[in-house]
Amino acid sequence: MVSSAWLIVAVLYHDTGEATASHKLSARLLFSYTMYEDIQLNNNTAIHNFEIFVDEHRAFIDYKERDGTYFLIHTEVPRELEGHGVAATLVEKVFKYLEENDFKMVPYCAYIKAYLKRHPEWERLT
């Protein structure tokens, strides 16, 4: 089965005669989101982590919670998964969880702050 991300690269290449670095990055990110879509987010309240498992590796966001507000402190992805869109997928899943449960957030993590700059639509959770 061919992923939609690679089909997008093929279409871009066909239409323009070349796939630019920007096109390749967009396709890679889309491929990552598609690839990790079925992975379940776990709110591990015992250790104050949102976590996902990819290929038996654990990626997580460390948090503190008070009165329905989550203070997002640190995002960590194992070296084996770096550069594959796992951190972005994890952040997206956490934001969706917070929104679906009417929680707010305060981002302290540098990665999450950078993610919010690229995706300002999620500022509604702050």
Automatic annotation (TrEMBL):
> What residues does the N-acetyltransferase domain cover?
42-126
InterPro entries for the chain: Acyl_CoA_acyltransferase, Gcn5-rel_NAT, GNAT_YJDJ
What PANTHER family does this protein map onto? PROTEIN NATD1 (PTHR31435)
**Protein name listed in UniProt:** N-acetyltransferase domain-containing protein
Q: Please tell me the species this chain comes from.
A: Mucilaginibacter panaciglaebae
